[in-house]
Amino acid sequence: ERTQIGIVGAGPAGLMLSHLLDRAGIDSVVIDLRSRTEIEHTHRAGILEQGSVDLLVDTGVSERVHRDGYRHDGIELAFGGGGHRIDFRGLAGASTQLYPQTDVFIDLADARARDGGDVRFEVTDVSVDDLTTDGPVLRFTDAAGVAREVRTDFLVGADGSRSLCRHRVPDSECTQYFREYPFAWFGILTEAPPSAPELIYNHSPHGFALISQRTETLQRMYFQCDPAENVDDWSDDRIWDQLQTRLGANGYALKEGPITSKTVLPFRSFVQEPMHFGRMALAGDAAHTVPPTGAKGLNLALSDVRVLAEELERAVRAGDAAPLATYSERAVARVWKAQHFSYWMTTMLHTLPDATPFDTRRQEGELASVTGSTAGSTYLAEAYTGWPGAR
Ligand code: DHB
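The line above is the sequence of 4-hydroxybenzoate 3-monooxygenase; the predicted C-alpha cells follow.
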C-alpha cells in the first residue's frame, strides 16, 4: 500500500490533520490501537479556545460546537474568601467554548467517515521505519488480523503522551524537558445542575478545586489530591465533603448529585524538541504534555496540526523534508507560551504539600496582584482564550 502521509494516532490531532490534508488534496492513512468507542469514552478536558472553535467550524468539521457547546465569556478565580471574575470579552475581546474533547473527537471521526477518509481503528503491532529515507514506512496488523505495510512520503506521530513514534527519535537528535508536580487531580462527573454560570478555579487552604460543567444536567469537577490516591477509597460523601469544604472557604455552595465517574489525572510538563526527525513529525501530546490547569492540551494539539498541515503541503509539493523544521519552529513558540501558562496557573492555584506560611501568603499576594490589575487580568484572559491577537 501507499499513501502520502501516514498518521499514527486517531485522536483529535491525527484526525484533524488528516481532515486538513484532505482539503489540500493530500491523502493519508490514520491508524490507532484503540477502538472508536474506547476513544469516545475517554473523558478529557472541555474548554476550546476561540481559534479551536473557528478551526472546527471554518473547515467544515462541526456545526454542533455552537449548538451543543456553551460560550463562556469569563472565569471566576476564587481565593481569600471570595470570587474574582476575569472578564475575557472585556479584557481580551474573546471567549472560550465549553465543548468536551469527546465531542470534538466524534465530530472529527464523523467528518472523516463522511469524506471517505482512511481511518483504521483497533490495529496492533505498530511500527514506523526508514524515517531518514525518502519513503518512511508504517507497519501494523489491521483489525481483521492482516499484516499491512504502507509506504509514505512523510509520517506523523500524533499518538499521545506515551507515543511510540517519539521513542524512535535518537537521544542525540533531540532534547527533552520535564517537570513533575507533587499532586494530581481527582476528576468526577456528577448528575447535577450547574453550581455557577462560569468555571470556578478555587484556591483554598484545603487545596485547589475546579468546578467545570458539561450540560444542564451533568457537571465536571476536579480537586487536587495525592498522585497515589486510589479512587476506590473515595465514596461520594467523602468527595462532596472535600469539594464543599474547599469551595465553602470562598463562599460557594455546590449542587450535589450522584457521581458517575471517578479518575485520578497525572500532572506533568513535558516538551521534546525539535518536533521532527527525518521525515517524521510529532504533534500534540506526542511532542508535549501540559498539566491540565487552563485546559491547553487539546488546543495546543489543534494548533500544532493547523501549522503542520501547511508545512506538510509544502513538503509534499517540494519532495523535501525542510518544511518539517519550519513546522517545529513555528509550533514550538506557542508550545512554550502554553507551557508557561499551564505551569503558572498550576503553581499559582495549587497548595504545595510542603508549603511554608511564606509560600501561602505569597501565593495570595500573587492572586490579588492578578485579579486587582487590569494588566495582570488581561494577560490571563489573553492566554486562556488562546492569544487572540496572535492569530
Ligand atoms: C476542564 C478541564 C480543565 O483542565 C480546565 O482548566 C477547565 C475545564 C474541563 O474538563 O471541563
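Note on the example: The chain is about 35% helix and 25% strand. The pocket of 3,4-dihydroxybenzoic acid is lined by residues 45-47, 199, 210, 212, 220, 292-295 (CB under 6 Å).
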